[in-house]
Amino acid sequence: MAKTVLIADDTAFMRMTLRNVIEKNGYQVVGEAADGEEAIALYRELQPDLVTMDITMPKMDGITAIKEIMRIDPQAKIIVCSAMGQKPMVIEALSAGAKDFLVKPFDAERVVESLRKIGA
Amino acid sequence: MDLSSFREVFAAEARDYLQSLNEDLLNLEKNPQDHSAVDEMFRAAHSLKGMAGTMGYEELAEFTHEMESVLDLLREGELEPTTHVINVLFAAVDTLELLLEQTISEEPLSPYGEQIAALRALVNAPRQAAPGVGEERFFTAELNEFNRETIKQGVSQGYHAFAVSVVLKPKTILKSVRVYTVFQALEQVAAIVQSNPSVQDLEDEHFDRQFALVILTKEPGERIKEIIEGIPEIESAQVEELSPTEGGEAAKQSGGEISATAEQAASSTPLRTARQEPLVRVETERLDKLINLVGELVISRTQVLEMVRSGEAVDRMGALDQLDRITTELQYAAMSLRMVPIKQVFDRFPRMVRDLAQARGKEIHLEISGETTELDRSIVNQIGDPLVHLLRNAIDHGIEPREERIAQGKSPVGTIRLSARHEGSHILIEISDDGQGLNLERIREKAAALGLLPSDAGEISMQEAVHFLFHPGFSTAEVVTDLSGRGVGLDAVKTTVESLSGTIDIESEPGKFTRTIIKLPLTLAIIKALLVKVDGEIMAIPIQAVRENIQIEPEQIKSIQQHDVIMLRDEVLPLYDLAGCLGFTPVDRSGPLPVIIVWVKGEKAGFIVEDLIGQQEIVIKSLSSVVGDVRGIAGATILGNGQVALIIDNSTLIG
After folding, report:
1. Residue B177 to residue A101, Cβ atoms within 8 A
2. Does residue B250 carry a pLDDT above 80?
3. DSSP 8-class letter at A60
4. Which residues of B touch A (CB under 8 A)?
5. Which domain holds residue B215?
6. B135 pLDDT exceeds 80?
7. Among the residues of B236-283, which ranges form H helices?
8. How many domains does chain B have?
9. Cβ B185 vs Cβ B228: under 8 Å
C-alpha cells in the first residue's frame, strides 16, 4: 500500500510542485494544509505516514506545528521545508523532532530520497 | 646481518627522537619563526629514517620519509607552520610513535594511509592551509591525548570505539544542518568523542564533503553505518573499529588496583614511562660507584672473616661500623639504579595540555619545574595517570574561560604549574592552577544531594570540601559534556597515590587558585615500618599509614550501634582488633591495650594490637602469585633475625 503524505505549505504553487513529485514516485498525498493549525488538524484526522512542513506559514508557523504534532504522536515523521538562509530555524525544527529537511527550490531527487529514507 | 639484538637500542633512541619531535613542534607552534626547531625536527626525522631503514623497518622508513618531505618544505620556507600544518605533523608523530611500538613488539601495523595522504597533501599544495580532501581517502579524526583517554575509559566500560568517516552527496545544501542530523541520529545510540574538522568548522561549513568522527557506542559497527546511511544526502559512511592501541583497550583485570592502573597507562598510546622496558639505561657514574662499593664490601668481608677466625680482639666495632656504612651506601647505590627522573612522565604533558586547551578553547600556559627530580621507576610508571586526571581537572574546571578571566581582571592566559621536588625521603609533586578555585557552595550542594551532608547543613570549610571531593563518585562538573566527565574521579587518583604509599591533598582559595599536592616515597622497595605483634606474629605497618600509637584501658572502649569506638581527644574513632581483622585470635581485653591509629581510606581508625615492637626499615617482597591477593596484606619482609613478617595493607584492612 502506498505511503500517505500530508503537505503543509502556505503557497498553492509549492503544494502543487511537491504533490507532483511525491505522487509520481508512488506515494499518496492524502491532504494539503495551508497553515500550521490546519496541518495539526489534518494530521489528527488523516494520520499520514509522512508530513512535509513548511516553516514560514500564517496563523501558526511550521516549527510550532511540528512541536504540537510531535506531542500528539511522538512517532510522527515530519520533513521540514525551508527557504535558503533559514538555518537556525531548520535546526530548531530538527531538534523539535523533524526527521529531515528540504531546502527550496526543491530538487525532485532529494525529495524522493528524503521520503524514502524517512519513511523507511 | 642480524640486527635483532639492536632492536632495544634502536627503540630507545627512536623514542628520544619522537619526544624531541613533539617538543620541537610545541616550540614551533609557540614561535613560528623558530628556525632552529624546524632544523632540529628535520634532523630528527632524517636520523629516524636512516635508523629505520638500517633495521629493515620499511614502513617506518617510508613514513618518516613523508614527514621529512614536509619538514624540508618548512625548513626552506615554502610552507608556513599554520595550525593545520602543525596538527598534521602532530598526528604524524603520534602515528609514527604507534608504528614504532608496533614494529618493536612485532605486532601488525595499524593502517596509516590517511596520515601519509595528509602529509602528501601538504607537500603537493604548499602554502595552502586547507586539507586536500580526497574522494576515496578514508580520513579519520585525529585523536588528541585527552580523547584517547576518554576512549580508553569507554572501551574499558564495554563500549566500542569507532572511527566514522562520512561523505555527503555533492549537491548537499545546508551542509552544516546535514551534519547536525548526523550528530542527532548518532547521539541516540552513541557518544561523539571527537570530530574532524572541529564542530565549529563543521558548523561554519569549513569543510568540503567529508568529515570524520570518533564515537563510543554499544551498537555494532554495521548498525552505525546503517543509521548514518539511513540519513538523506549521505553518499557513504565508513565505520572502522579503532584498534586498542589507537583507542586504548580495556585494562586486563588481573592483579588488583596497581596492575590495573599500570595496564591502563600502558594502553594509553604514547606513554613511554609505563612501558615495561627490558633494558634500562643507567649512568656509567652510578655503575662505577656500585662496583666501588662492592669492592669495599669484599675488603670488609675479609676483615670480618679474619676477625672471627683469629678470635683476636682487634678493632671489632670499627670493622662492623665499616660494614654497616658500606651496606647502607650499597643500598642507596643499588636504589639509585632504579631511580629515574620524573621528566619521563612530565615530558608528555606540554603536548597534552596544548591539545586539551585547544579543544576547550582556552589559552593555557604550562610551567614545569623540577623535572630532573628522581624517583623509583615503578612509581614513575604509575603516577602518570593520576597526573593526567589532575591536569585535566585543572584545564576543565580550574582555568576559567578567557572572557571570564578578563572580566575578573586576571590575565587572559591561564597558568598551570607542575613541579616536583625532594623533601626528606619523599618527593612532592604539585599541580597548581590560577583558576577559579573550589566552589564551596557547589560542593556543599553536591554533598547534600549525595546524602553526605544533611540538606540543611550550613557553609562547609575548605577542608571538608576537599574531603568530599575525594569521595567515590563525587564530581562537581555541571554538565557531562562527553565521557570525560564520567571517567575516573579524584577518588581513583587518591587510590592510586595511596597504593604507592603516598598521600594527596588539595589546597584552594576560591577565585584564585587550586593546588594539589602529592607526596610520594622515593622508593617502594624499602620503607620504614612500624612492627607490631598480633596474636604472636610480627606484622609490619608502613609508617606513613600510622598516625599515632596510644594505650587505652578496656573501659575506654565504648559501643555505638554494636560497633566498638574510642574517644581520642575530640574525635570518635572506630576501633577494630587487628588480629580479628586478619582472622587471628583477638586480643584478650583484660589489661591496658596498645592501639595504633591508622589512616584507612582517608579516615582514622584505631586497631588494637598485642604489642608494639618498634620502627625498622624493611624491604618489601611481594607475596608469590600462588598466594594471590590477600585482603589486608600487602606483602612480606624478612626481619633481621630471619623471621618473615607480613606487611599490612591499611587500605584494604576493613571494608
Report:
1. yes
2. no
3. S
4. 171, 173-174, 176-177, 180-181, 184, 230-233
5. 136-250
6. no
7. 244-247, 256-267
8. 4
9. yes
